[in-house]
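Progress against Task 2.4 (sequence-to-structure conversion) is shown through the following example record, which the project officer requested during the mid-term review.
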Amino acid sequence: MVHIRVIMRLAAMTAVTLVGAGACAFDPQPGDSGGDRPQLAAGAGGETGASATPGPDQRESAPTVEASPTPAKPKPTATASPSRSSGTTTTAKTRAGCPVGEKQREVETHLARLETFGPVTVDGRQSAEDCAAIKKFQRRYGIVPAEGRAGPTTADVARRLAATDTDACDAGKGTTFCVDLTLQTVWAMRDGKVVMAPTVTRTGMAGGFQTDTGRFTVNGRNLSEWSRPYKVWLPYWQHFTRGMGFHETTTYIHDKSIGSHGCVNVLPRDARQLWELGKIGTDVHVFGRRPGT
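Structure tokens generated for the chain above:
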């Protein structure tokens, strides 16, 4: 009986040590998924991180979305009348068909700087062009609902992307994956040129789970990696250090109240692009510090 208790205690200590290390998955081991294996993990059965048991960056509850005040129900009259918001934020739709958010001018400013989502006029007023550009931006970065409203999430994502300095990444010859923890953005460079534009990420959270900084190389890849510590599938897995790697996010990436256990979470389309650009030996440069960690 004493022998069994000792074994159980050692197992518990091992689990605590692993969690404290901030690893999303185990380090690649000989005979494990440490190689470049372009196939689904055995036993996946089509299951992905989004449908598996909730893990380190998963929740059972609905995702946090772009806040939008709920309009009051119109009175049951023969002629439909415009609904009005019960809140203080202006939500009346313009001729462009988009609700107006409280961050309209701020979003316009950042989108004008990015110059990739269509023409915008920085005047704090919603136009048809502004509406189209904001919707396109929201669809690209997975902001829901993508209705063109310039709310806090849209403004925050646009600010971070517009502020990203791609030259801050120490990238030499070949391909380098760059991670700015401060701005929570990721991009890829090849021979000093950007080959994947900055996009959003969500990295390790506070409590000993911060993502490591420094220079690394991709040393393990798998189209769908099973995280044994947290019982969840990690799509488009590319490991670079201590059980940390790039993978498709398994939850709403803009929910800042949660984070990973050190991994670099990216949107599905970005995870696929990083997979296509990467290989065993791809350089990784992680720098900065995630706010609040």
